[in-house]
Amino acid sequence: MRNSKIVGVGKYIPERVVTNFELEKMMDTSDAWIRERTGIVERHWAKEGEETNSWMGAQAAKAALDMAGMTPRDIDFIVYATLSPEFYFPGSGCPMQVHLGIPGIGAMDVRNQCTGFVYALAAADQFIKTGMYNNVLVVGSEVQNSGLNLSTEGRDVAVIFGDGAGAAVLTATDEKNKGILSSHLHADGNYAKELWVEKPGSITYPVVDKTHVDEGRIYPYMNGRFVFKHAVTKFPEVIYEALNANNYKAEDLDLVIPHQANERITEAVQMRLQIPKEKVFSNIHKYGNTTAASIPIAITEAMEEGLIKDNSLVCLAAFGSGFTWASSLIRW
Ligand code: ACO
Fold first, then answer.
1. Is 114 a catalytic residue?
2. What family does the entry list (predicted)?
3. Candidate CATH numbers 3.40.640.10, 3.40.50.1000, 3.40.47.10, 3.40.50.2300; the one for domain 179-331
4. Which of 77, 205, 257, 296 has the most CB within a 10 Å radius?
5. What is the whole-number distance in angstroms between the Cα of residue 4 and the centre of ligand 1?
């Protein structure tokens, strides 16, 4: 069976920078608290009406296509990961296709929050491995700032999230030992309510009303400590699952790119794997948690910094709402 490999990556970061000090003016928080608990120094917020979810996805996609030496017309299929689509439906893959000028090809949205990009990559990989498509565009894009409670009540979540987009072009290869070696996808819906946005949701008629808005049920809720505890267990577990499936050990890894959830989670993962700090990528200080966009943005920056070379063994790993957790082992 043929394999799939990443031949281009790209990112789009909104222009507006929001520092921790700016958040201090909106809610009862402090730069010191945010840095110490999360490692975040600043994040970017998309501009209303201009930097939309699908538009940012398209900018990241164009950058990824440039690196791949391709044009949008070379793409056979789109897999689009986001928790913050511009509409309840359709998903953002459809409007992004219009920005890229390629109507007609399939566009599938993936709803797996922080794990979205790894799920999307796994789906794209399967489409290529089975021979259905040759070139698949995988996108992760988020506009979080329009959905946050920016008062003191919402501070635990509001300080964490940021906006941005990242993309990868996946193409078919006959090289057996290169590309995506394996993907490992998990979920446990028992914990859905520990990290969720309840409204709008079809369980009530109508899907959202004034009471829901007044009660703050339209904002993300996160049981922070509970999520933290599960994340520090599931990240190493799913990375070891990928290593074991391919007969590798942690010391064989050239780079781990974890979803950028919290610097303390990343440090705990590094300690559990017993690998040097330089082998675990981090850029959360600049962007916060950009959910489905965090991994493709991180891959792009790791490549820019020369941390990923031909033949590098790279593990992507994520944990988030669902709960969901996933990994992907890649020989570059
Ligand atoms: N500024 C100042 N104080 C705050 C803030 C804030 N922004 N947020 C909470 N606090 C206060 C709390 O009210 C609490 O005060 P109290 O002791 O008087 O009650 C105190 O700080 C400690 O709060 P904790 O929630 O216990 O703080 P913790 O050390 O757990 O850090 C955090 C909170 C950063 C949210 C942490 O729990 C975390 O990182 N959790 C995991 C996040 C994550 O990985 N999410 C997954 C991805 S998200 C996705 O999938 C969509």
1. yes
2. Belongs to the thiolase-like superfamily. FabH family.
3. 3.40.47.10
4. 296
5. 39
